[in-house]
Amino acid sequence: MRLKARHEQQSIIPTASMADIAFLLIVFFMVTITFEKDKTQVALPKTELRFEVPKIAAYISVTEQGQIRVTDGESMSTPVGRVDDVDAFAANLVASYPKRPVVLKADADVPYRHIDRIIDSLKQAKVELIYLLSEQKTVEELSGG
User: Using alpha carbons only, what angle is made at residue 73 by residues 59 and 46, rounded to the nearest 5 degrees?
Assistant: First the structure.
């Protein structure tokens, strides 16, 4: 008696869970991504040590050409016309976010008198913490903490 040959089932890779995995990856990257509020490119001055700046801070950036951009840390940075406009920005910042630190990010070739004028504006507005951004390892990195 001769038996019929059975139809052999071909091997396949189950792809039903691929959509679930892709969805989980998309959700993971959406939750973990952080957007930089101030994307102004400057050549930072070199220092021996610097401290880590807080995650949520206001930024004032000064480019080599003298362009000043400001952000309160919540929205994207916007250009201001001149150094005097930093006074109004600082006053509004302190009124809205009294404890928010300010990070001053200036190009290494900007004359210090411009930086000094911005720092004076921040002091007059009663900003509590002012960070001057520099390029170097942080104090926390050197101490292992």
Answer: 30
Cα dist from 12 to 1, 16, 19, 20, 30, whole Å: 33, 12, 17, 19, 32
- Considering the domain 58-137 in this protein, what is its CATH number? 3.30.420.270
* Mean of pLDDT values over 7-33: 83
Whole-angstrom distance, CA of residue 12 vs CA of residue 18: 14
* Euclidean distance between CA atoms 114 and 85, whole angstroms: 13
Of the candidate ranges 10-19, 57-66, 89-98, 102-111, the one whose mean pLDDT is the lowest: 10-19
- Cα 58 from Cα 98, distance rounded (Å): 11
36-to-32, 39, 57, 71, 110 alpha-carbon distances in Å: 13, 6, 11, 11, 23
| pTM value surpassing 0.85 | no
Q: Where are the domains of the chain?
A: 58-137
